[in-house]
Amino acid sequence: MDDLEVVMIDECQGYLSNVISALMAEKLFIGASVFSKIDLHSGYHQLKVKEVDAYKIAFRTRYGHYEFLVMCIDLMNAPAAFIDLMNQVFQPYLDQSFVVFIDDILVYSKTGNDHDEHLRVVLQILREK
Questions:
Q1: C-alpha angle 78-82-84 in degrees, rounded to nearest 5
Q2: pLDDT per residue as tens digits for the range 92-101
Q3: Rounded to the nearest 5 degrees, what angle is found at the Cα of 47, between the Cα atoms of 45 and 48?
Q4: Pairing status of strand 34-39 against strand 59-61
Q5: What pLDDT, on the 0 to 100 scale, is given for residue 63?
Q6: pTM of this prediction?
Q7: Under a CB-based contact definition with an 8 Å cutoff, are residues 70 and 48 in contact?
Q8: DSSP secondary structure string, 59-101?
Q9: Ranges under pLDDT 70 in the chain
Q10: Contacts 24+ apart (CB under 8 A), 27-33
Q11: Which of 1, 58, 74, 98 has the highest CB neighbour count under 10 A?
Q12: Could you tell me which residues come within 8 angstroms of residue 17 by beta carbon, excluding any fewer than 6 positions away?
């Protein structure tokens, strides 16, 4: 394996391990009877690019020079960066009542009352972060 291959595997590993853990999440749903899915539409666009780094993802067209102010999906590490953020934000609740997969959040509960509380927690976290 040459150096380029090693770097690409290392940089993408966080994303792949999250995919694997999400596929194993089925075991977490035993006993759950209420589910809700929240889709954070255009999730990458929720991440601001540091002003000092904006030039790194700039592009030029015949109409002018443009710099992204938010993360764009085409960046190599965009999925890993977004997944890392989601895991940090929801860490205390992961695999207890939430499963996060990229920009989707699956909330699962055993009862309707529990589910109402779990949804409140998710929405509060999203509002604060």
A1: 120
A2: 888 888 888 8
A3: 105
A4: unpaired
A5: 93
A6: 0.68
A7: yes
A8: EEETTEEE--SB--TTSTTHHHHHHHHHHHHHGGGBTTTEEEE
A9: 1-26
A10: 28/95, 28/99, 28/108, 29/108, 31/110, 32/108, 32/109, 32/110, 33/109, 33/110, 33/111
A11: 98
A12: none
Q: How many whole angstroms separate alpha carbon 42 and alpha carbon 71?
A: 10
CA distance 29 to 32: 5
CA of 76: how far to CAs of 4, 19, 42, 72, 121, in Å? 14, 16, 16, 10, 31
pLDDT at 47: 82
CA proximity to 44, closest of 88, 14, 81: 81
d(CA 97, CA 110): 9
Token pair recorded at residue 11: 């940089």
> In order of start, what are the domains of the chain with their CATH numbers?
3-43+78-128 (3.30.70.270)
Taking the CA of residue 87 as centre, how many other CA atoms within 13 Å lie in the half-sphere pointing to its CB? 15
If one counts every other C-beta atom within 10 angstroms of the C-beta of residue 87, the result is 14
